[in-house]
């Protein structure tokens, strides 16, 4: 190729690279600005579980039912011997198996077993859990338990806590006090606390007030859709606009002067009473495998909220003590006992 053409070609390539670099830099800046406005979450925390209709001949998954949990192999001997064939109208929970990670299936089965025991308020022991874990993975039990604990927390909003280190017994403690062990309504279903913590996080990070569009944009990323029944959360629109509102965990109101009507969500009174911005931030940090301080501006706000809560607690305590002190000075003395009356009457002439 002649030298002149080579020179032109080289110049064109340099110009193209420069343009590409500028476009890449602008794209990176735009992405950073967007992340500053609202943090991106890790992939949906429900990766350990997925929804599938029960197979006709196998029972690899646990079909959680009101009458019992169906599994021909995993639950035997672990305080859960009830077996029922899944009906065609009932969906099962199937474990997502990662080709590179053999512990995924075991983790998922153990998560569902613990939720089953939690809903029925039955004791949980290490011995019971080991009956579910495949023999070849028993030496990795602690690693499996860590994964189980993480999944329980981010999906269902419950913490796994050891209550007796000698007997190795555990309990599950919900992050909030939703009725029926977090399932909200009686009967079948799974704890909804994890979803509520996520919603409270969105509201907090959107300036303590999130539009309905914001909420559904977030839920859609979690593969939760309005009008489409979810295998953990049931019918999500009813859950967040009616059930959680009626329970005062969420406030759902029309945006002022909106025509056509638009709606927004705020924290309800029970959410303020049962959790805090810092706890919600810790929950989000857990999902993203980071620390709360990574969410800079929200972390500062959560710290201020914690300080205000402490001040409010001290003020209330001081007012209570002052009232008690006033009462002890001004309130009439307690009436004498019958014995005291008898003793006094003996001195009467």
Automatic annotation (TrEMBL):
<feature type="domain" description="MAGE">
    <location>
        <begin position="103"/>
        <end position="302"/>
    </location>
</feature>
<dbReference type="InterPro" id="IPR021072">
    <property type="entry name" value="MAGE_N"/>
</dbReference>
<dbReference type="Pfam" id="PF01454">
    <property type="entry name" value="MAGE"/>
</dbReference>
<protein>
    <submittedName>
        <fullName>Melanoma-associated antigen B3</fullName>
    </submittedName>
</protein>
<feature type="region of interest" description="Disordered">
    <location>
        <begin position="326"/>
        <end position="349"/>
    </location>
</feature>
<dbReference type="InterPro" id="IPR037445">
    <property type="entry name" value="MAGE"/>
</dbReference>
<dbReference type="InterPro" id="IPR002190">
    <property type="entry name" value="MHD_dom"/>
</dbReference>
<dbReference type="InterPro" id="IPR041899">
    <property type="entry name" value="MAGE_WH2"/>
</dbReference>
<dbReference type="InterPro" id="IPR041898">
    <property type="entry name" value="MAGE_WH1"/>
</dbReference>
<dbReference type="GO" id="GO:0005634">
    <property type="term" value="C:nucleus"/>
</dbReference>
<dbReference type="Pfam" id="PF12440">
    <property type="entry name" value="MAGE_N"/>
</dbReference>
<dbReference type="GO" id="GO:0000122">
    <property type="term" value="P:negative regulation of transcription by RNA polymerase II"/>
</dbReference>
């Amino acid at each position: 190729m002649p030298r002149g053409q080579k020179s032109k070609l080289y110049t064109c390539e340099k110009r193209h690279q420069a343009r590409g670099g500028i476009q890449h830099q602008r794209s990176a800046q735009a992405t950073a600005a967007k992340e500053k406005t609202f943090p991106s979450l890790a992939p949906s925390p429900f990766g350990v579980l997925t929804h599938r209709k029960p197979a006709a001949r196998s029972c690899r998954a646990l079909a959680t039912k009101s009458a019992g949990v169906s599994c021909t192999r995993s639950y035997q001997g672990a305080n859960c011997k009830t077996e029922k064939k899944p009906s065609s109208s009932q969906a099962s929970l199937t474990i997502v198996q990662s080709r590179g990670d053999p512990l995924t299936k075991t983790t998922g089965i153990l998560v569902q077993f613990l939720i089953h025991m939690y809903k029925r308020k039955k004791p949980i022991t290490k011995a019971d859990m080991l009956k579910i874990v495949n023999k070849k993975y028993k030496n990795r039990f602690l690693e499996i338990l860590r994964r189980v604990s993480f999944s329980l927390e981010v999906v269902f909003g419950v913490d796994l806590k050891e209550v007796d280190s000698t007997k190795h017994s555990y309990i599950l403690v919900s992050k909030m006090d939703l009725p029926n062990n977090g399932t909200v309504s009686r009967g079948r279903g799974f704890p909804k606390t994890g979803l509520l913590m996520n919603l409270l996080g969105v509201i907090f990070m959107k300036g303590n007030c999130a539009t309905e569009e914001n909420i559904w944009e977030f839920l859609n990323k979690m593969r939760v859709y309005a009008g489409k029944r979810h295998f953990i959360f049931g019918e999500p629109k009813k859950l967040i606009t009616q059930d959680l509102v009626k329970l005062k965990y969420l406030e759902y109101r029309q945006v002022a002067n909106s025509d056509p009507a638009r709606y927004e969500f705020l924290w309800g009174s029970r959410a303020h009473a049962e959790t805090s911005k810092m706890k919600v931030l810790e929950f989000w940090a857990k999902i993203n495998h980071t620390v709360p301080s990574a969410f800079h501006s929200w972390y500062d706000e959560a710290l201020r909220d914690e300080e205000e809560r402490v001040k409010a607690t001290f003020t209330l305590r001081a007012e209570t003590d002052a009232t008690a002190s006033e009462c002890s000075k001004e309130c009439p003395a307690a009436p004498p006992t019958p014995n005291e009356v008898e003793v006094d009457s003996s001195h009467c002439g």
